[in-house]
Each structure stands twice: as structure tokens, then as C-alpha cells.
Amino acid sequence: MKDFRKLLVWPKATTLTDTVYLLIAKFPPSEDNALTDQTRRAAQSVEINISEGCGRKGDAELARFFDISMGSACELENCLDISRRQNFGEEHPRTKAMGLVIEVKKMLTAFLRRLRRR
């Protein structure tokens, strides 16, 4: 079992979640049960699956949850693209979130590569 708070990727993922919350606060009310909810859940899933994986036993289970986190990061990246195309939210938090999601994906990729070499 690992302490997820000691991983460099986890605080980056928490900042990503917080930034997404700032972005979606400005989405139109008509998106509350659609893109707003999907974007929120994808951001939460990135962070939550990192922590859940750290609570599991063995590298295989940790890698599985990091893979889920990676999938959620890709989903979130697409949600951010949709919000840009639809002009939902403000550009600054979206740009920040996009940069963070790319960083998190790179960190997850590196971590998974190391895990699979063991």
C-alpha cells in the first residue's frame, strides 16, 4: 500500500480537479446534467483512482487504477475540447485545466511504464 499524498501526480490531479470546478461554475445551467456533470466526474475520477489504486495490494492492481485514471484524463481532455467549441466557461481556467491534464497524463504514463518494468 502506498501513500497517494506522497506521489507527485496526486497534488497535480487535485489542482486539476479544483481548476475544473472553477471552469464549470461558469457553464450554462442547461448543461448541469450533461457536460457540467460529465466534466466534474471525469476530473474527480482522475484524482480518486490514483488514491484508490494506492490502497490496493500489488503493482498489477495499482496499474489497473492508474489506467482508469488515464482513461478519465482522456475523457476530461475531450470534455474541455467540447466546452471550448461550445464557448462554455471562461478561457483562463480551461487553458490551465488543459495544461494540467496533459501534465497528469505524462506523469501517469511514466509511472505506469516504471510499474510494468518491475
Summary of the model, kept short:
Helix content is 76%, strand content 0%. The protein is built from four helices and no strands. The chain has helices at 9-24, 35-54, 59-85, 91-117.
Structural class estimated from helices and strands: mainly alpha
Named CATH architecture: Up-down Bundle
Helix and strand pattern: HHHH
Q: Estimate the global geometry from the Cα principal axes.
A: elongated
Radius of gyration: 15 Å
Number of helical segments? 4
What is the CATH C level class, in words?
A: Mainly Alpha
State the total count of DSSP E strands: 0
Question: Ranges with pLDDT <50 over ≥5 residues?
Answer: none
Largest sheet, strands/sense/barrel: none
Strand content: under 5%
Q: Roughly how many Å apart are the termini?
A: 16 Å
Number of domains: 1
What is the share of helical residues?
over 70%
- Mean pLDDT across the residues is 95
CATH superfamily: 23S rRNA-intervening sequence
Can you give a write-up of this model?
The chain has 118 residues and is mainly alpha-helical. The protein has one domain: de novo design (two linked rop proteins) (Up-down Bundle). The protein is 76% helix and 0% strand. It contains four helices and no strands. It has helices at residues 9-24, 35-54, 59-85, 91-117. Helix 1 (9-24) packs antiparallel against helix 2 and helix 3 (59-85) runs antiparallel to helix 4. 30% of the residues are buried.
